[in-house]
Write a structure and sequence with these properties.
- The structure is a single chain.
- The protein is of the alpha+beta class and 360 residues long.
- It has helices spanning 6-10, 57-63, 68-77, 80-83, 87-103, 112-118, 169-176, 203-214, 300-307, 353-358; strands at residues 128-132, 136-141, 184-185, 194-200, 219-227, 234-237, 241-243, 253-255, 265-274, 285-293, 329-337, 344-348.
- The strands form 2 sheets. Strands 1, 2, 3, 4, 5, 6, 9, 10, 11 and 12 form a 10-stranded mixed sheet that branches. Strands 7-8 form a two-stranded antiparallel ribbon.
- A hairpin with a 6-residue loop joins strand 11 (329-337) and strand 12.
- The chain is globular and about 55 Å long.
- It starts with 5 loop residues before the first helix and ends with a helix.
Length: 360
């Protein structure tokens, strides 16, 4: 299965010109500190109150503006839309997400119906657990889904939903575990990245897991699809990194040998092939890479792959790709060496079907 897009998500980060579309009611955030509070830009965006509806997939796609021919062709090319995707919890919210991007001029002039017809995997949004016990719930997070951790930070507030069906991991866990006093994430995962995410039901458990990350004892393995065919099968990047002063939004990082923080990432090529996504980069050389970050800096993997000359497909912050529906970075495996009696635990989020579909 596949999820929307990272490149689409990346376009969230800044309006390039004023919208000529009808203005919908806008969400407001009290005491929004602006760019220093990532994600809280709702006050400057067009927010839809009503979402797409439909009694079944075909009716929903038609209501999203697709012609009968487009509906027929997209279901033929991607039958999982009918056989696997959840209409109410995946397809309709993802269509609302694309409509939100369109309302704010973030589809580069492409229509919602064209986006869906070209890359139907963009409608996937599958929340599910890979492990649960009395202390921990380990989620396979969909791409372009936020955590909502800013709610607990000093001076910061909860993200505002930007379209009907907009759901954070925290929202999803609160519904599944109504008896938890709060959701405690034990580590971070970028909005654009899918895969393993650990949350704790209590302070003791959260502290035990967070300590492993802090001491760099947690072993993380990611999968990425990158542009090009690396010359070597294995390589390591240890370039220091820091915030990019040329980014007015304060989002991007850069390699900074003089003032940056030390970091290290190891890479191993698993497969070389061609991109199989309809669009601007269809047919270009790409590779599937296994990634092991030794340190855990923000955007470390994305920046080190760009530095290597092989940016991630769909990563419009660190590549030229604003065409692929998602950023192809997935947190595949996490090993946590807890003290006894719990002992070492390993959590695996299977490789998304979107990765296989994206390469040939």
């Amino acid at each position: 299965r596949v999820a929307p897009r990272v490149h689409l998500a990346a376009r969230w980060r800044g309006l390039r010109h004023a919208s000529t579309r009808p203005i919908h009611p806008r969400a407001t955030v009290i005491d929004d500190p602006g760019p220093e509070n990532p994600g809280l830009d709702a006050a400057g965006l067009n927010i839809r109150r009503g979402g797409v509806e439909g009694r079944n997939l075909r009716e929903t796609l038609a209501n999203a503006g697709m012609t009968p021919e487009q509906v027929r062709d997209v279901i033929y090319a991607h039958p999982q839309l009918e056989t696997q995707y959840d209409l109410v919890n995946e397809v309709q919210p993802r269509i609302n997400y694309l409509r939100f991007l369109d309302d704010n001029d973030r589809l580069d002039g492409e229509s919602v119906s064209s986006c869906i017809a070209r890359q139907p995997q963009s409608l996937e949004r599958d929340f599910h657990l890979v492990h649960e016990d009395a202390d921990y719930a380990v989620v396979n997070k969909p791409w372009c889904v936020r955590l909502d951790t800013p709610r607990g930070w000093p001076g910061k507030v909860r993200f505002t939903p930007k379209y009907p069906g907009d759901l954070s991991v925290e929202d999803w866990l609160e519904r599944r575990y109504p008896d938890w006093d709060t959701v405690r994430f034990c580590h971070q995962l970028d909005n654009a990245t899918s895969g393993v995410l650990v949350a704790a039901s209590n302070k003791r458990a959260a502290g035990a897991a967070a300590k492993l990350f802090r001491e760099r004892r947690a072993l993380k393995t990611y999968l990425a699809i990158v542009f090009g065919h690396p010359e070597k099968d294995e390589w390591t990047v240890d370039e220091p990194m820091g915030r990019d002063p040329d980014d007015p939004k304060g989002f991007r990082e850069r390699v900074d040998p003089e003032h940056g923080k030390a970091c290290e990432t190891r890479f191993r090529v698993l497969k070389r092939g061609k991109l199989n996504l309809r669009g601007r980069f269809e047919g270009v050389p790409v590779s599937k890479v296994e990634v092991t970050p030794v340190t855990g800096r923000r955007h470390q993997i994305r920046l080190h792959l760009q530095f290597s000359g092989h940016p991630i497909v769909g990563d419009n912050a660190y590549s030229e790709d604003t065409d692929s529906f998602r950023t192809f970075l997935h947190a595949h495996k996490l090993t946590l060496p807890f003290d006894e009696p719990r002992g070492t635990m390993q959590f695996v989020a299977p490789e998304p079907e979107s990765f296989a579909a994206a390469m040939e």
